[in-house]
Amino acid sequence: MKRLLLSLALVVALACPALAKDLTISAAASLTDAFTECKPLFEKANPGVTVTLNFAASGPLLKQIEQGAPVDVFASADQKTMDDAAAKNLIDAASRKNFAQNALVLAIPAGTSTVKNLASLSDAKVTKIGVGNPETVPVGRYTKAALEKLGVWNALSPKCILAESVRQVLDYLSRGEVDAGFVYATDAIKGGDKVKVVEEIPLEKPVSYPVAVLAASKNKPEAAAFIAFVTSPDGAAVLAKYGFKKP
């Protein structure tokens, strides 16, 4: 009987595949299209791993992680948010890598002509400017810093319609609900023929995207494999397709 039970156990063990792994990736909203395309490519290269993607502005994502959300990989649209995560010991610092760059642009709804450049924003006809909330949204922080350096933030801020992510600013532009908005170059591409870029905004530091494995991840080998994929030639090709530049 013992031999029979042992034989049955061996058969079951050989017949059952390795336990599947569920990998949760929290990523900045601007990465939505690129990471959505990366997901099946990574899963195909890593049988048994299923990726769940969670997109939002970097600030709210960090807040979710702080509150115990079961996240394995965090990809931020700015260094500050990742620095905050590191300061709170939420990430595996050794796993942190910069994997992409972006640009900040001023865009308008296609078919409108009131805003021709940054200087046009001071025109009385311009009453609504879409801006990510500088308190929580990286694109908003980049925007505020750039406008402060140019000495126009205080004058323009009363016109600003604050958004909870860069994709919300893009939605405002696509629907013609604002006269202009500040988004990433990649989001302007996503907007297609509904959005027109009028100017790239100069920044002291480039829009840089870091990614890291979470300290509390229960799937660190798989999380590290995802980062390796994103930083590989295949991952870089997907990012480039959506307008991201190499770090």
What does the secondary structure layout of this molecule look like, with pairings?
Layout: H1 2-15, E1 21-28, H2 32-45, E2 49-56, H3 58-66, E3 73-75, H4 79-87, E4 97-102, E5 104-109, E6 129-132, H5 138-149, H6 153-156, E7 160-163, H7 166-174, E8 180-184, H8 185-191, E9 195-200, E10 207-213, H9 220-230, H10 233-241
Helix pairs in contact: 2-10, 3-4
Distance separating the two termini: 63 Å
Shape: elongated
Give me the side-by-side strand order of the main sheet.
2-1-3-10-4
Mean pLDDT: 93
* Number of helices, where a helix is a run of at least 4 consecutive DSSP H or I residues: 10
Task: Please explain how this structure is put together.
The chain is an alpha/beta fold and 247 residues long. The protein contains 10 helices and 10 strands. The protein has a 5-stranded mixed sheet with strand order 2-1-3-10-4. Strands 7-6-8-5-9 form a 5-stranded mixed sheet. Strand 1, helix 2 and strand 2 form a beta-alpha-beta unit. Helix 2 runs antiparallel to helix 10 and helix 3 runs parallel beside helix 4. The longest helix is centred in the N-terminal third of the chain and has 14 residues. The termini are far apart. The N terminus is likely disordered.
Quick summary of this structure?
The chain is an alpha/beta fold. The chain contains 10 helices and 10 strands. Helix 2 links the parallel strand 1 and strand 2.
